[in-house]
Each structure stands twice: as C-alpha cells, then as structure tokens.
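agent> Task received from the user: take the single chain below, predict its 3D structure, and emit structure tokens. No templates, no multimer pairing.
agent> Plan: (1) validate residues, (2) run structure prediction, (3) serialize to tokens, (4) report one or two observations.
agent> Step 1 OK, no nonstandard residues flagged.
tool_call: predict_structure(input=
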Amino acid sequence: MSMSNMVIRSAATRRLAANAVDVAAASAAPFFRAEGFSASQAVAFAGGTRFARCCGCGRSTAAWWRRSSTAAPSPPSPPHIGSYVSGDTTHFGYESVSVGEKEGRVRRVFENVADNYDVMNDFMSGGLHRYWKDELLRMTGVGPMAKVVRRRAWSRCGNSTDNDASGAGGGDERLMSILDVAGGTGDVAFRFVEAAGCEERAKSSGRDEISITVSDINPEMLRVGEARARQKYGAALLDDSSALAFVQGNAQRLPFEDDSFDLYTIAFGLRNVTDVDAALRDAHRVLKPGGRFLCLEFSRVTNAPMARFYDAYSFNIIPKLGEVVANDRESYQYLVESIRKFCSQDELMSRMEAAGFEAVKYTNMTGGIVAVHEGWKPLQEN
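)
tool_result: status=success, residues=382
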C-alpha cells in the first residue's frame, strides 16, 4: 500500500471510528444498565471521555492518571512460580491451543490489525495509551542520557585526528543503543527518536552515536512502522545516520548478539509472547551488563469498582469497535482476553527476577490498568 493510500485510509478510519463508538456504546448499553451503570456513562466512556469523569471524580484524565501512578518495590521473598509454559498447550485468549499453534495465530491477529492498530488504540483507551507511553519515555531517561552522549561524542571528535573517534565518523561502536521489542508501528521508538534529537542529528554526516532498533515478529507491523518513519522523518534517519532500524525478530530468540543494548523496552507486547519466561531470559541476554529493561503492559486493576467498569467496557465495547472500525471482532476479542490471562504485577516481578534481573519494581498507572515493570542486568554475573 502506498503512503498516500495509507494516509487516506487512516483519515477515513478515524471518521468511521467516530461513528463506531456510538454504535458500540448503544450495543453495550443494556449490559451496562444491568451492571448498575447508566447508558450515558457507557456512551461517554466508549467515546473516549475522560476516564476519571466517567467514574465521577471530576478530574482530568492526566491529573487522575498521575494520582493513580504508584511505585511498588520488589518483595523480599517473591512467591514461587512455575514455568509460564508447561506441557504441550498454552492459552490464546481464553482458548487452549498447542504451543506451536499460538505463535502463528498471534501473528495473524497483528497482520489483521496492523493498518488500524494505532487508531484503534486511541479508541480502545480513550487516548490514554499516549499518556502511558509518554510516561514510559520519561522513566527511561533517554532525553537526558542522549544529551550526555552527544556531548561526549563531540568531545571525542574534537580531540581526535581521525574519523573513527566517535560513532559519527563511521566507527562501529554506538554510545547508546536502544531496543524496542514488539514495537512494529514505531509509536514508542518515535518518542525515543525525538527525545534523543536523532532527527536533527541526521542532518549531519556520518552515523549517529545513538541507535534505536525496532524489533517485531510481524512483518506487516514493521512495514507500517517503517513507512510512517520515512514519511515523518525522511530517509536520512534510516539510510544515512542509521539512527533508526526495523528488524524482524522473535522476542524469545532475538537476532542480536549478547550484551548488545543499553536499554530494552517492550510496550503492550509481552503478553502476546508464547513463552514469557523465554522472552525475559533473551531480554537479559541481549542487554549489556548494567543495562535496563522496562515493560509497559496491561495488568490487574487494583480498585474493585473500577475493575467492574473496566471489564464491562473491555468485553462489550472494544470487540464491537473492532467489528465496526476494522471489520475484525475476533482479533480485538483476543486482545481483551489476552490481558486477563497475563501475569499479575507481582507474578511478572517474580519472573523477571527468575530471569536474572535485579532491583525489580513496578509502577501502576490508571489504577493498575497498566503497569511499568523495570529491572537491571547486573554489572557482573554471579
């Protein structure tokens, strides 16, 4: 599909989605009333109206979101957990499937939703996914770190008589390497590009000192992401400075050398991996000693009334939106079910520690609808 066709299709999809929320809310209204919610609450929530206002607290989304963000340290004695995958079967949403079958079925889901994925995220979350990703960016510290890296690169370049002193001169070493896994459409990676000043750096000659690699198992998601990147930033960022790259890869067996990256992020992708433990071990493998892992993922809501409302919205409006906007109810039904089957906050912390990460903790956002888990690869292996 050409870029012009993608833009036209995106605009048409947004107009269609604006009508779809009313259809979805109307379809779900009887269920909401049975659960004790008014029909007007269903319509407001489906339309992306402020989450907090729907719950009656009268605060803006951003203010309420920040208020509900709380950090939790790693427990001193994590509970015993078994393997994420045991035996020949695993879950695909609420369905039991063979281990070998799940990967292909997940791939087909994201092939189906690739072109509409970011648009649907807006309507599925009322735009909150943007706040969550902005907070993930802030937590990584990429912006401040990039400034230090660029000062160091200029200092090395100024003190050298050859062209290999810094990444800009064509040397192989990057001073900061970032890997965003399951990030095919580039939504998180583009935040790194802008925070690190990579677009401006691409106007100069030579390779960038900072590299951002997007890895995804699905070539359709990567196609959408690379097309967006070329439209947004131009070819120089990918072809000349090589600050941004798109690489197909399985999170359980990434196509990168050991100790390659300073930062590993994965947003809304870990729950779709067949074997979460294998993905965590491979994340640990590709990080450099002292490297940092951050995972933004849907989690367990901590407030009981809010959990009830969230379940009603998820199971009655999100699949309907998928049906109306993308003509694909089944894929969005799977996305909802996959959230309920994923680890709790404490279980994921324990799995990260079992994979070798240290100083593990998580931060709840929006009452636990999502959480950011973070951990560090030790400087020295035990």
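agent> Step 4: summary for the user.
Confidence is low (pLDDT under 50) at residues 1-10, 37-67, 73-78, 161-171.
agent> Done.
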